[in-house]
Fold each of these.
Amino acid sequence: MQNIITIANLSKTYASGYQALKNINLEIRRGEILALLGPNGAGKTTLISCICGILNISEGTVQVDGHDIVTEFRATRSLIGLVPQELTTDAFETVWATVSFSRGLFGKPANPEYIEKVLKDLSLWDKKDNKIIALSGGMKRRLLIAKALSHEPQILFLDEPTAGVDVNLRHDMWQLVRSLRDSGVTVILTTHYIDEAEDMADRIGVINKGEIILIEDKKELMRKLGKKLLTLQLEQPLDRIPPELAAYRLNLSSDGNQLIYTYETEGERVTIISLLNALSAVGIGFKDIQTTQSSLENIFVNLIKDGQ
């Protein structure tokens, strides 16, 4: 798949000497949803701000659809829509006027039909004549997305877009994001709702202390790092695990009623069959068997913990 953003050796150091980003190398594919995860202060917003030209980079280069963000700023910025964390809008402007004005800022001709579609997709149409000061927090968050989409960008950055938004509105937003991706828009999002990333993203990036520590296709990440548990509900409780089963590194529950086998890769079928045969050989019966897999949240927490 063709890359739409190419980041090479990007670093950002503030005047105080604090280095917020350290030698970032990242390629973002056209038409994908990339979720960027990391703890507070990891550098997510700084990275987005550098790509969008809001912050000057200290070292390295960023290209957006073949255009350099420094020497061809206008070309790159016209390709990008940004939804920031902060709710910064003109409180006494109407919804319709502010979204239309945002479109005009990028030199786009008036297109009332398109603005109407965006507002309807975001459930803002019935608020089009309302002043922004009268909107709820969730409505203001959706308004920021409408403003970001007003000039029909090819790339959409969503920086914590569902913070403070109720469940129904989150659902509406993600339906819109999926439809944008399906229409060819590239979406990069940061979120603290890791279930959203697990549900939405094609790829996952993890940033910590200003460095990209992982970038991986979501399915491959889950396959490689998602631990799987096989839990056996025993017919009779055990006091201890028989030595004949030591090779399987089993764990026994505190009440002795469950044996738990942990494995980290696919292709364990032969080993599981061997385990079940070994249990039978030592006279251990079980009445139920369950399998579970680590969530993306488990993987993320372990990655950050290992990087500290």
Note: The longest helix spans residues 167-182.
Amino acid sequence: MSKLDSQRESEAQGCPKVEHCPLLEEVELLRERCRKLEELSSIDALTGLFNFRHMQASLELEMERTRRTKLPTGLIMVDLDHFKNVNTLYGHEGGNAVLTHLGKLLKESLRVIDIPCRYGGEEFALILPNASLGHSVLIATRLRDLVRARPVDLGEQHIAITASFGVAVFNHADRDTLQAFISRADRLLYEAKNSGRDRICAEPPSPLAVEEEVTADEKKALFST
């Protein structure tokens, strides 16, 4: 559209000039508000991570992508250890500080393509596109060590925290539904917690995926965690 045509359209809407059109400015303002509302609907307000609703939608899309491309999707379930004790000792302010702290660590430490989400309470879900089992375990190991090494500052107090991790991978040959895949990772998470916490439990590599996805270095990582 030429500048003259744009001016005529604006004048037809009661605006003498395009650059000073109140109606167009109002439309742009409404669009920006809609964009922000849409963003807020998918973000957890406390941690700044994606929320449970966004997590489900994103994981379903990644599973479908895996079926099409044969590239795996990793899923790490994370749970803060002894979080109830944090709330008891430091109150809800301390609990919220710990959750916010973990959210920041996750956002800073993952790849750009990864999708960190707050699953609920003190549990988190990390969706890892194109991540094999060995790669997913390496990411979980790095995060476990980082959480352990970075206490939470609460005024003059420092809250030491640890987390447990369950690692599963969806491959193109898998027939799991969304909920079945989440349940696989969740069971591994609770196995890690029941085994003493501050550790990682990963499923064994599937026979069909070993040659495609597990390198020698990844095998070493899998069995030395």
Note: Residues 60 and 178 are 6 Å apart (CA to CA).
Amino acid sequence: MPYLAVIAFVLGIGAGAGDVRLERHDDRVDVTIDGKPFTSYRFTGHCKPILFPILSPAGTGLTRQWPMVKGVAGEPHDHPHHESLWFMHGKVNGLDFWLSHPEAGKPDHRTGPRVEQTKLAMSEPGQPAVIETENRWVKADGTVVCTDTRRLEFAGDEQARSIDVVITIRADHGPVTFGDTKEGTMGLRVHPALQLKNVHGSTGAAGRITDSEGRTDADVWGKAARWVDYSGPVEGQVQGVAILDHPANLRHPARWHARDYGLVAANPFGLHDFTGAPSGAGDHTIPAGESLTLRYRFVFHLGDAAAAAIEDRWKAWAVSVKSSE
């Protein structure tokens, strides 16, 4: 595909671009494309904002439903803090925000370490579908550790849906250290069919992991790559999800907490676990008054990574974001 055509294809400029609408409720913002549900941004009831459910162009959910929905046949009941799609980390000024979930043995979303939304704005109809939020990261006693701003943009067509996530962590309550641990950071838990193996009672695992460097399956874990994709047959049709790491991100290309049981997370901080570097080598401190911005794109697609042109999509996205700044 010619490069300029790839840019148009990825940005949804062509004739196939869908009509994306946002609808706000008390606890969430629903996102539809051409009148069909795509996802919901949920900002209450959890230890952090999450996106759930997330549907493919075929209308199939591509993330695990548990623990948000109980009793779904064939789903594993492990790692309850893996709530569809989220951003958290296991060491933030020494606090474990990653594991905060009542079923994980931690305090619930009202009393434990948590991220609370303080402001939300949405784009007007007819403009690109964008949600912008402000949030605060707080200790169990309510003390603010830091704040963040988030920008989520939604797009899609008949072959793929995308979510662009831009998160800026602000050290406005003193310095903030994201510690060296594999438990983080920009995460997603895939549909059980996209797992490599069945665990904790799950059934139907037939997935494949691929990264930008040509590695597959277990070889992807802890390695540096521009993107990682999980794909496989879901409800009789090959579908998948990719996470793209932007070249402007800290320590790009990201290292990946990509598990055979269905967790995939871009993590720029886990150098000790991923590479064997000395403990603390991955620590990153944001000085007081400064900030750190991270950018990711999620692509929910038909076909496998090659059919969905994930590498071309990464190239076009990287160019388009850089040129718009």
Note: The longest strand covers residues 144-156.
Amino acid sequence: MLKEINNKTLIRKCGAGFTPYSFDLNIYRGCAHRCKYCYALYSHKYLDSDKFYDDIFYKKNIDLLDKELGKIRGELVGIGTVCDSYQPLEQSLKIMPQVMQYFIKHKNPIYLSTKSELILRDIDLIADLSKVATVYISISITTLNENISQKIEPNVISSERRFEVARKLKEKTNAFVGIHLMPVIPYITDNRENLEGILSKAKELNLDYVVAGTLNLYGETKKSFLNFTDNEFPKVSGKIKEIYSSSKSAKEYYLNTNEFVKKLKNMIGFHNKCSFKEWEKNRPEQLSLFN
């Protein structure tokens, strides 16, 4: 069900301190991509709904951006950091072109993450913004195995098509274009062949960065995801539960994966070409894997 939010603000100040952006903008709440690992399932309780994948809320008062961007004066804004700004409903609602026009007007930098090829609809606007402000576009890719991908993110285009989106953005804009290799899921996507393959493809396309992150399980997401692995990956579900049985074992898994990704990057010769200084300085070890 599609529901409009009578929003009084659009841009939110980030308080976590571990992201490269100080503010974020999410025009949608809920997501039809139906990714089984989505960490944002909890957020719908604030909207009096328990149907995160079906009840999609959207913010309509986009004109508020004119005033709000004037106040933050060039601070980096994360777009689609909770729910994808280019999920299916955006095809008809066409909110993002309005958003991009205001960012161009204010020459304001963005950090945008998506799994959708719909972003290519707005490639001219992204190109225009990248001429006057810093633009980071991150394409999320978890696995090169399409059978696994269809299970863990059933309403998302193939990884091959997502790499094609990254290639076109890199070729036709001045944006920094990279890959969100996340989440890395124990016993499902963390094998060497998969991680090395994604890194190698990023290097082949001359992308600017790869940011990896391990699976985060808590609250509703933990319950939902482990029920899913019980059904779809029963041979490894118990092992995943063991890793996420305590913060200590989850952190140990993070550290081991962190070192593994670093070694693969060095072996392949892929190094981030752009810096996320504030993110790197403040990042919590449990969330992000950097060079």
Note: The radius of gyration is 18 Å.
